[in-house]
Amino acid sequence: MSNPWNGKVVLEAFWWNCWNTNYAHDWYTYLAKLAPRLAAFGFDGIWIPPPCKDTNAEPNMGYTPFDYYDLGQKNQNGAVWTRFGTMDVFLRLVAVAHANGLEVYPDIVLDHCAGGASDPSSPFQSDNQQYTLFQPIGYTGPGTGRWSRNWLDFHFNPQHWHPKDDWTPSPTNNFGADFCYQGRCSDSGSANSNCAARSNARAWLTWFIRQTGVDGFRFDDVDGYPPEVVEDLLYNAMGPGLEYFAVGEYVTNSQSTVDAWADATLNRCGTFDYPLRSALAGMAQSGGFFDVGNLPSQQQQNRVKTVPFVSNHDTAHGTIQPKLDPDNPRVALAYAVAMTVDGSPQLYYEDLFRNVAPWQNGTAAEDIPARPWLVNLVWCHQKLAFKTGDYFVRYQDSKQLLILERGARAIVAINNDGANWHSAWISTAFFPNTYLHDYSGTCGDDIWTNGNGWAFINQPPLTYSVWGPTGVSGSFEPVSRRTVQQFEMDDDLGDNNALLGYGGKAITGVFRIAGAIWPAAGSQVNISVYVDIPQQVDFQMLVPSSAPVMALSGAATANVPLSTSVNVPTEGRYILQARLSTPTASPARLYIKTDYLGPSQSSFF
């Protein structure tokens, strides 16, 4: 059974300064190699680092973005690639993840950007606020890239000129200049929904989804700009529906604050459940002196897209306290609760895997050991279909024992007492006389519900249990799916002097390269070529330095594409290139839409 859209199990698939010497500047390929294991564990999706070119391409983690349209295909800020790889391997990761039944959720940083030059038109010339001139590279040269910016796009500006508040941090923000999206943050009405920064962000996210084929998003630092911006961008980029994963990082222990933020996005985006995490961390550090019966009341109330969690890269590396040791047995209790309450639980890479020497930095994806208890919790969540059952708090009258149920799917109990057993009779949604097995392995003997559907739970010290109907077994068989990625050819995209040389409008006489895909051997690739103004187009798909695998010519318009399909003979990198057929045609913007199946596993990378 596949997980409901709002009950996915997500892995944060990186840690701060993540690195693997086998895949230098290529974390995306490491994750592609890891994808079959994650699918076999039962994960629904992976949260990956920010993909846009940072202020410093190679060392930085992507949280101070410079060029949103550079996913690792332009030679700027020190390299073509980002810390995590080129655009080619990013797109390949998405295709490989999809082939393994995994969704991909990149980190999106839209509160701020960095790396700008000093803006001579800015009235701020004495502090960091002057570095607000952004002129990215484009195909036609330096400074011709899409989404240039100047001081008017940031706080402060004439439309938003007042002291620091929620939407206007100080000019000395260490993460770079903060965007001014106007809107409600300037109390100047809906007309400002089309301010330059907001229009550009909206256009970028739409382009990004079409280019990459990603499935959802983690929005960074959302308390720094108005929530209606996220709602606006998601509506325009994803359409009016709500059934996709999206979560915002709003660091607060206030339930009402995160609830109000999610409400303001019209539930297009949820929040990480920091209030619940604070309580879970308190339990983990309590030494047994914590009222676990109080945990359910700590979860936020808006749970349409809430994401319960125990640790992430910020908590693990000191940005947000407290840091939790995954080998602390009470952390296992915290995860058992986070996996059971409403929402899409997020696990952390360094909790799932033993990310320490000798495995950290240099291990093969298949060799790094995982913590069996956490693998088992994912198995239980998925095989027992936790989130298809209603959520019940069955017992919370003890400071040490808490019992939760996903209606007629699973009963989860935790005992925070390090020395004593605790027990309780509970009502359940299971049928009377149903045999139940503890799939955590803590309790050896099966139990059954009585004639009224009640069950007796007797929990050993400092453990959790997961009770479900007997006889559930087996591994996961992920449903492979195809990937759709669209390559736009325009003069303000790509870089003519970069290693990859992608971009530029289509012209006559010479093929220009739109990009590359990585299909599985023997699979069908579907191609559609669109153009703004009707044109005669020549298109080719080929392996580098080889004859075309696909070649076609004909008319293309904005609504009726030039289309074809081909079965590729071998797995690998296939170049997409096009030109205009008519000798007198003016350069034209083309869109090459691809639909293909990536390999689920590969020995080619």
UniProtKB/TrEMBL annotation:
Domain Glycosyl hydrolase family 13 catalytic as annotated: residue spans: 8-371
Molecular function as annotated in GO: hydrolase activity, hydrolyzing O-glycosyl compounds
A UniProt-annotated Pfam family: Alpha-amy_C_pro
GO BP terms, alphabetized: carbohydrate metabolic process
Coiled coil: none
Membership in a protein family: Belongs to the glycosyl hydrolase 13 family.
Entry protein name: Glycosyl hydrolase family 13 catalytic domain-containing protein
